[in-house]
Design a protein that fits this description.
The chain has helices at 18-31, 38-41, 49-59, 68-85, 98-107, 121-127, 151-160, 174-183, 209-224, and strands spanning 5-8, 111-114, 136-137, 167-171, 186-190, 199-201. By secondary structure, the protein is α/β, with parallel strands linked by helices. Strands 3-2-1-4-5-6 form a six-stranded parallel beta sheet, with helices on both faces. Helix 1 (18-31) packs across helix 4 (68-85). It is globular.
Length: 225
């Protein structure tokens, strides 16, 4: 079976906006008397804005204190702060090797998709000047279930018109790798603690078309045997 698509997560794979998310959430959390550090912020990687807010409220012992309208207002304030900070993103904000691997995948006539829960993903891709590399970006506003549910990766595959078993997914978060596996795709994990990925890499510097095609070929051989 030929590899027909590669689907990327955004934060931590293409660019690193985790610190920008942290600063925005920290500002909102401090207003309601909750403090947390960047170590806790790691737990918010790969999950939706509202799910992140609920984890922060739980962390601060304030789960159930705010009604739905208030939660939406808090999440909206965080997003406003985050969007303002995106002005600092440029082409130089791409993680090492990403521009090159995107070009290599396109040269191999393999489709490229995005599976990010960020509602700001299109704006980020434009800021990084790589939006033309992606043939389809899953619409996070239409996703009902957050990672580790496979919904967003299945949506990306459907938008690219490929079957999940014909695609590789790339993630930097444990929940994201779980989502890729649950979708029936082959998974590549970037960073530590992702031993459940089919292929684990230390950083995006190791990511290349040769790396992906060799991984695909090796798995195909195993399945045939």
């Amino acid at each position: 079976m030929a590899l027909k698509a590669v689907v990327f997560d955004l934060d931590g794979v293409i660019t690193d906006t985790a610190h920008l998310h942290f600063l925005a959430w920290r500002s909102v959390a401090q207003e309601i008397g909750i403090r947390f550090d960047e170590a806790f912020n790691e737990e918010l990687k790969g999950i939706s804005r509202m799910d992140s807010l609920q984890r922060i409220l739980r962390h601060g012992g304030k789960e159930g204190v705010f009604n739905d309208k208030q939660c939406l207002a808090l999440a909206g304030k965080k997003n406003d702060l985050y969007v303002q900070s995106l002005a600092s993103l440029t082409q130089a904000s791409l993680l090492p090797g990403i521009r090159e691997v995107l070009a290599e995948i396109r040269a191999a006539n393999v489709k490229i998709g995005l599976a990010s829960v960020s509602l700001n993903a299109p704006a980020i891709l434009h800021a990084l000047a790589i939006h033309t590399a992606f043939e389809f970006c899953a619409d996070a506003s239409r996703i009902v279930y957050s990672k580790p549910d496979p919904e967003i990766f299945l949506a990306a595959c459907a938008g690219l018109n490929v079957r999940p078993e014909e695609a590789i997914g790339i993630e930097d978060a444990a929940a994201g790798v779980e989502a890729i596996n649950a979708a029936g795709m082959l998974s590549v994990g970037i960073g530590p603690g992702l031993g459940h990925a089919g292929l684990q890499l230390h950083s995006t510097r190791e990511l290349s078309w040769k790396c992906l095609s060799d991984f695909w070929s090796s798995r195909s051989v195993l399945e045939r045997n």
